[in-house]
């Protein structure tokens, strides 16, 4: 009996770890999407450029460039929501580019414990979605797993439609960009990973974990990786941080964390280091016993489906939920479930003569035969929400534009009043330092100017 109970507990634990499964796109995990420092990344109109190495069909080493344009900025923490939502999408029974689920369900599957409406995690989730939806990604050598070649690409990540009322419990609609979603659908373009382990790590360790995971599922050791390339382009550490500091502090802490979790081998074998020339070092990583287990893959039951969560909240029995999921199309279920939830919030429970479950089942039955259309008030609700969204968008856009113009004018005045050439000296010193670290003059000039502008923007905001 004790052994049986223990076996059941092990199965339950294993199922829980498998359910919390993230999905990383293989080209994207090879370089940072934004600076790891939030002071540099959470700025409006962020333009972040990084490079990554790849081999062509003739096994010749090449370098690709990726550019992320984030109108609202981007945080390394946003990657938890990006990879987590992709994992949830591909764990559904019917995988489509549209994810329709309540925020409670999404946060629960992401492993976030505090799911109070209006709480810190809800706010952070909404803000991350806004930033991810406002992002555009470009690359001159993105690996296309469908055509098995490197291509020039440009795409966004996602779009969304959320209830305007922050207290609403209605479902959130998240739609993936078709080009990006296509790359994630193919087995050769994605990596499933343990979201629970990923969530425990700091941003630098998370990026190193995903980068090494891509390698370690196939090989015992990584190739020799340049510390500057690893720190600046893969982990997103600022170009102004010296290579010796990246190696001694930033990477050392991440290595120790991953060694403790057995992602890297224990002892002196976990990382080897060699000096190439003055200021240039390379590292080689050895995988730990964590990768001896079977590869991660999503394995949800019907009870874990997003539609099950929505229908269960409307008080349908298990038998009714199974009947609805077998009988009606996902679009019909989503539409009438949302109508039912909107009626509950707008009119209260007194609106339903026989309860929410009976109301939904009756409408689904008649809608499936073409004898029932959404009620007029439903179109009014949607129109009101669209008007309020549009009003809020234009108000925010107007405020942001005025702020940008004011900030740009202040920066222009600061540069014009720089009689002693203080800012020019800062740019020159930064340029010289970046060149000494191995950057090309073009890259160093661009990074030096970008760092100065970010410094001036922070200064004007503080003033």
Describe the structure.
- It is a single chain.
- The protein has 463 residues and is of the alpha+beta class.
- The chain has three domains: 178 residues, no CATH class; 100 residues; 73 residues.
- Helices cover 51% and strands 16% of the residues.
- It has 17 helices and twelve strands.
- It has a four-stranded antiparallel β-sheet with strand order 2-3-5-6. Strands 4-8-7 form a three-stranded antiparallel β-sheet.
- A hairpin with a 4-residue loop joins β5 and β6.
- The N and C termini lie far apart (69 Å).
Number of strands: 12
Number of domains: 3
Q: Termini, distance in Å?
A: 69 Å
The percent range for helix content is: 40-55%
The ordered string of helix (H) and strand (E) elements is: HEHEEHEHHEEEEHEHHEHHEEHHHHHHH
Structural class: alpha+beta
Strand coverage percent: 15-25%
The low-pLDDT segments are 1-18
Query: Whole-number radius of gyration?
Result: 25 Å
**Which overall shape is indicated by the principal axes computed on the Cα atoms?**
globular
- Overall residue-averaged pLDDT value: 84
Major sheet strand order = 2-3-5-6
